[in-house]
Predict the 3D structure of the following.
Amino acid sequence: ATNRMSVATTSVTGSSGSAFTSLSARNHRSASCSVFSPAKNRSRVKNSSRFAQAEGVRAPLSGVSSSKNRDARGIMLRHGHRYGNQPRSSMEPNDFELDESDSGDRVGLLPPRPGGEGGRPDQVDWRATGFAFVFPAIGGLLFGWDIGTTSGALTSIMDPNTSGVDWGALDSFQQGMVVSTSLAGALLASAAAAVKVGDELGSKKELQLAALFYGAGAVVQGIAPSLGVLVAGRFTYGLGIGFAMHAAPMYIAETSPPSVRGLLISLKEGFIVGGIMLGYLGSYLIFGQDEGWRSLLSTSAAASVVLMLGMSRLPDSPRWLMQRGRPASEARAALEQVRGKKANRDSMDAEMMRMESSDHRVGGVNELFRRENLRPLYIGISVVLFQQITGQPSVLYYAEQVFINAGYDPADGAGVAVILGFFKLLMTGVAVAFVDTVGRRPLLLGGVGVMTLSVLTLGFCSETMASGDLAGTSFTARASVAAIFAYVGAYQVSFGPIAWLLVGEIFPQRVRSAAVGTATLTNFFSNFLVSLYLPTLNEKFGTAGTYYVFSIMSVIALSSIYLTVPETKGKTLEEIEESLK
């Protein structure tokens, strides 16, 4: 935006009869007449004339307009890069002078061209932007649905009154298989996406592949005649999870306007939480139904069809098109489609220029360890790792017992999950509202700080209740409930959405697919390890000791974030990449 100057003329009736504008951005700040040096003025007038001829308007005369003429109707000048019309000129780079300090609060002489140039550069066409967001986000919703329905489906299968099958009496190992095979599929898909699939297909086609696995897995689970087929369906559905969680943040990050990128990627986390809540609701609705688990596990097939059809209406990511060597015109058409007609065309011009000048080569997993990629790699991997090892699975695992100690009805364990689920959704909304204004770093630092205090409180309360001090038990139990809400709320405004936001935007384009795949794989694998060893950790250190271990991890996470994570709000992906070099 700083490499353009808007120059135009018009005829008006008045004492002067005509007016003209030929100002540099630096000199036009003065309300009084100013005079250019002859050499510079000749260069500017020459180039201004060339521009005016190209735009189909009368070439300006040499000289400057007066304050009076500038105030006349129809003679208003805009040159700023923040708010408005900046017609493309043919000037050479050294023929103008523009400062970042220019406020750009004037209106252009020329009427705006179609496409929103007359508005602010950060103007968002919500119809087009929302369309490009909602379908990738459905991939996250289907992930959340799996989390929310697994427990209810397993209960229905194991209940002889509702299972409708003769293999429903599952032992602990078989239960573990039903629960964990979707995670195994997600791990495999994440690895495949990191190594090759992501770069070859692009995020659009990868999301369509995820929809195919989602749909196939849902159907197979719904018609499963045996445990083996059910497990196969769970694994297939997990492949959809892995591909969707790799591709969705990339597609949203690469197509969203920079001013709302944080909001949209964070809102995807809201879709995951919403999917969990819908899963809880579905589990409630099929409770007591004969073979209710079949309808519960197969319902998501409808949403997978919506995901497939929706992505077929969207273009490939413009950055992926450029990286694959496709014509710039094709990438421009894709960018215009996902940004919409109301988006500022000059902002898109500048974004296309940055895309065209960026490195278009494709780098694999082996390039992640090159020196220039180490910092973004550490940031991306560390935030998804800390997301899992700072206590989130443990806090939710023990939440029901904490509520029971505080007097909650033990017969209604599902109620605890619903209460926390609604609270998670509410706090995700807080993150969505503030991530593009407050910024990523403050939310992360503040959220993880509250998480640290919360797990310390939970450890202290658990230790107090284990000591048998009856006098303080009631107060301690209520404090534990408050600490759980504080932890869950802080997690949902920090690690919950922002870890995936940073994963989507922090990596260079050349290695983004491989890096996001590696981060997704790290997330799922660390989740698996924490879930696997949590009972062992609790047995060795006790509940209080387990919380204290997680508090130590939280302190390490807080230090890492403070020292390494940059602020990325409002920046294009290319600007983020440049700042990390």
About this structure: Confidence is low (pLDDT under 50) at residues 1-119. The radius of gyration is 29 Å.
